[in-house]
TrEMBL record, chain A:
Record InterPro entries: NrtA/CpmA_ABC-bd_dom
The entry's keywords: Cell inner membrane, Cell membrane, Membrane, Transport
Protein name: ABC transporter substrate-binding protein
Domain of life: Bacteria
A Pfam family reported for this protein in Swiss-Prot or TrEMBL: NMT1_2
Amino acid sequence: MPLDSDSPLRPALKRPVLRTLRIGCMPLTDAAPLLVAEELGLFDSVGLRVTLSLEASWAAIRDKLAFGALDAAHLLAPLPLALAAGLDGVQAKLTVAAGIGANGNTITLSRALAQALGRFAPPLAAGAFARLVRQRAAAGEKALILAVAFPYSSDHYLLRHWLAAGGLDPDRDLRLVTVPPPMMAQRLQDGLIDGFCAGEPWGSQAAALGLGTIALSSGDIWPNHPEKVLAFDAGYAAQDPESAIACTAALIAAARWLEEPANQAAAVRILQRRAFPGFAAPTIAAAFDGTAQGLPQAAPLRFRTATLPRREQAAWFLRQMRRWGHVPAELANSAALAPWRPDIWRAAATRLREVEPPIASRPPADLPGTA
Amino acid sequence: MPRQGSMPAVPWHDPCLGQAMSDMERRTTTLRVLLVDSDGERAAAVTQGLAMAGCTVVAVSAGIDDLVQRVRDTGAEVIVCRLDDPSRDELEGMRALHRDEPRPVVLFTEKAVPEQIEAALEAGVAAYVVEGMAPARVRPVMEVAIRRFRAHRKLQQELAAARNDLAERKLVDRAKALLMRRDRLSEPEAYRRLRRMAMDGRKRLGVVAASLLQENRAS
């Protein structure tokens, strides 16, 4: 598994004390850059000592980061906005040094719901889904329940946007609930939810178990949308900027490695061993192949082009949070978006001679009602 | 009462202290707890630990789809959940998506966690019980959590009420302006007209103002 030989990782320069950097991540395919960086020794090669922990819930990652039990984390892109606003009683200053992954979520529906929709080719049109919801309401059937991984997640805001684009009110016409991705398939089976939007490999796993049908991918809603970020506790990044830059460099190197088709099989093995024991390799590989249930995705999971954290892209999530009344009106854009620090990414990228990725596609147009 | 040796380790488990509390005391002061735990075996151990600390576990819930109903049925005063339990995100979702805040949530950890996590107490909504905490401290933490939760909710309600008042006043002002313009009334006349409409219809002033504005827009 050779690294790019023309751009070796330079060891970090001076650092006060070599203490262990504690990073948390969730068992999702887009945690791959962190898992790979550890497996390939990329953290070692930038002179970092890292412990990478797989966490059980986003709430636990958030709290550990906010209260000092973690130094950095694989985080949902809208979560630093929620923490800047102090939503749900938890406030924290974070430093977003890199983006982790673009695209990569699927909207997976129960077999029964997919059958009720009749034959469709993914991506399922929002209008077709909305028609079914209205028919059910007219027939007096109970509202559909769709699950997302966490309130402040791209899955949630992209799903809401898709539903609203179909003319539905996600707060009135359906019931949205939160379920951790590893429990989604079980909840589908138990009939407690009718569908979910979550990161891979959980949609492909539900499909492989015969419990769900993938109706569309998040990249169908906003092609190449930012998905996760690498966020540091702001105090840590301010105190030890060298470590933050070095860690970002290791992440960029891992993203490059992941994008090489020749490394894909090895990446799948790493994920299987570290995060998804018991999963068939093809289930994990689907996201890397850019397929969902065997069909090619228009905007599949990408790593290398997503590492630059873009404030203007995060602003789309903030607008959605405002639109749905999830953040107080008095929260200033500048304060909410302050954690995004492309300068740290640039410092790391320079060391690797990584060129700035082209501007990703524009976010979908705001729907009526967005401030 | 089970002996300590027969139980898995529970952070605040201390049978002596539990026994020190008379049955009478426990009946009158016991806290009703809803435990959310996705692991049945551990839930049993935690239930016993909580009993030692003067709490009664009135329900154990793994999937929390019916949590609001459960709280209502059992009269639980506080929800207890492990920091690393996968159900945490469902609890969060309920709060954020549905504004359902049935009860304060107290989290506990089995692994050592830095002291800062106790700062979560300051957050007002959740509280942490940290590993190794003596049973004598479990109750106070829960009581603090409940107090803060109530204070927090009161504040939220006051804020919402203030926002409503402001919104209502704005509506009334706009409806007044409409009447002044349309029916060439003076400001006091317009206000009196609105008030009469509200009294006749037995509706709030704001509601009357809103429907007046809507009718005007429709016509």
